[in-house]
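Exercise 7b. Backbone tokens:
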């Protein structure tokens, strides 16, 4: 079963440079496979800086985060909060 979160990018500059780096680091640290997609474009590996930058996701645009990993719910909630609120780091668990 795939866990999905639809979120609006909260960083004003979108998923570019620093925000993309924060997001990719958070995904890598989460330890589960995660994809990210925008619009009708195919989903890409969210742990790949180049793939995330290539999406061209701007602030205020919707993206879809997805993972097929077991027990991904909490991690996906945390990643969704990171993206939607434009945070500097992944929020703590719990």
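Sequence design result:
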């Amino acid at each position: 079963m795939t866990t999905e979160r639809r979120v609006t990018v909260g960083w004003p500059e979108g998923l570019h440079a620093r925000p993309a780096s924060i997001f990719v680091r958070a995904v890598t640290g989460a330890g589960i496979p995660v994809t990210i997609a925008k619009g009708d474009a195919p989903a890409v590996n969210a742990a790949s800086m180049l793939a995330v930058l290539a999406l061209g996701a701007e602030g205020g645009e919707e993206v879809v985060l997805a993972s097929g990993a077991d027990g991904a719910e909490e991690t996906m909630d945390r990643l969704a909060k990171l993206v939607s609120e434009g945070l500097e780091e992944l929020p703590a668990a719990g």
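Instructor comment: The mean pLDDT is 95. The longest strand covers residues 3-8.
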